[in-house]
Amino acid sequence: MQLDLTSFVLELINFAVLVWILHRFLYRPVLAAIDRRRGAVEKSLAEAKTARDEAAALKLQVEQRLASWERERDEARGKLAAELAAQRDKALAETARAAEQERARLAALEAKQALERRSSDERRALGQAAQFAARLLERVSGPELDARLVELLAADLGALPDEKRQALSDAARAAGGSVAVQSARPLSPAARTRLEQALSQSLGVECRAQYAVDAALLGGVRVALGSWLLQADLADELRFFSGGARDGG
User: Fold this and answer.
1) Residue 142 — very low, low, confident or very high, per pLDDT cuts 50/70/90?
2) Residues in a beta bridge with 212
3) What is the pLDDT of residues 64-82, one digit of tens each?
4) How many structural domains comprise the chain?
């Protein structure tokens, strides 16, 4: 086979034309398409990476937020538990204080009731003793006891404080020396004389007595001088013994 130079040159030209046509109309569009595809893929990859990074950041943010919520929940739970414990302790303390106050109130009430019962028993006992003493004194009292009580009243008049002596003296002068005397039974002349002398000497005023009998006195005398009342009688002593108030100025 002989190589024809002209044919060879033509084949070369045909090949060159074919290559140019292929390059012009096929290879360049293919490369452009490949480039566009590569760009789209790279863009998709970049977008995917961005989305992945954003997703990772969002995940981290969500995890951080969840962790923050858990911490806040734990803190709120701990705070609530502390408040509940404080309220429980306060309620228990208030209940204990109220119970202690109630116990103290009941104890005070019981003590008061016991004191009232004891006082009532004492008053009843004193009343019974006074009644017994009154019956006994009714049996043993007499003129001698009256005279003795008059002597005791005369001694008390001599020992009066100056202020009270002056008040009695003024009352005696205002009454013109008149005094009212009550006794359990008629006084003897000697007892009357002794009483009037003691009044006159102690008060510095001549005293004249008006006598009356009051069997309730049991024994002794009462001397009324204006608004003043001098007493040396058994009934008054018994009332004082049994818890009654003593009459007199």
Assistant:
1) low
2) 182
3) 988 888 888 888 888 888 9
4) 1
